[in-house]
Amino acid sequence: METNQHTVNFQLTNVELLSVELHAPEQGLQPDTIFEFDIKSGYQFYSDKTEIVAHTEILIKAKGHDKVLGKAVTAVMFQIQNWDEIVSISNDKVDIPQQLMTVLHSIAYSTTRGMMYMQFRGTFLQNAHLPIIDPSNLSKANPQS
């Protein structure tokens, strides 16, 4: 991947399903139930390991209802091989090119979608598929260092 200034050498190093929850509705769901998703994402930096961890949390509700039917929380870890060329840290503030963060969050979000599909298969949430979205909206989350 290339940013405006450098080629970024990175790899996905680990994927973790941190938690998954199912909360069965009192009344069964209709086959044509429309699901809504509350998506939260953030990231952590580990400069000593040259790692970025993208966290994604998804809450699932039936449209028009407040009860959370399901939840999935994932962490996707990436190692930036040329960290010192790409990342700058000053006054405890981490500066990473927005293009890179967008790509990492896109990968993390898509990975979360697949993990949810596998976890919810055969349950009342088997048709709750995460929508395809603009990943640049995910990467605007506040960093957690």
Key structural traits:
disordered C terminus; 145 residues; Bacterial Protein-export protein SecB; five-stranded mixed β-sheet; two-stranded antiparallel ribbon; 7 strands; alpha+beta; elongated
Set down the secondary structure blueprint.
Blueprint: E1 10-22, E2 35-46, E3 51-62, E4 68-80, H1 83-86, E5 88-90, E6 93-95, H2 98-120, E7 143-144
Parallel strand pairs: 2-7
Antiparallel strand pairs: 1-4, 2-3, 3-4, 5-6
Q: Describe it for me?
A:
- With 145 residues, the chain is an alpha+beta fold.
- It has a single domain (10-144), classed as Bacterial Protein-export protein SecB (Roll), CATH 3.10.420.10.
- Helix content is 19%, strand content 40%.
- The strands form two sheets. The chain has a five-stranded mixed β-sheet with strand order 1-4-3-2-7, covered by helices on one side.
- Strand 5 (88-90) and strand 6 (93-95) form a beta hairpin.
- The protein starts with 9 loop residues before the first strand and ends with a strand.
- Residues 141-145 have low confidence and may be disordered.
At CATH level 2, the architecture is Roll
Biggest sheet statistics? 5 strands, mixed
CATH superfamily: SecB-like
Number of strands: 7
Number of domains: 1
- The strand order across the widest sheet is 1-4-3-2-7
The overall average pLDDT, rounded, is 88
CATH topology: Bacterial Protein-export protein SecB
Percent helix: 10-25%
Short description:
This protein is 19% helix and 40% strand. It has 145 residues and is of the alpha+beta class.
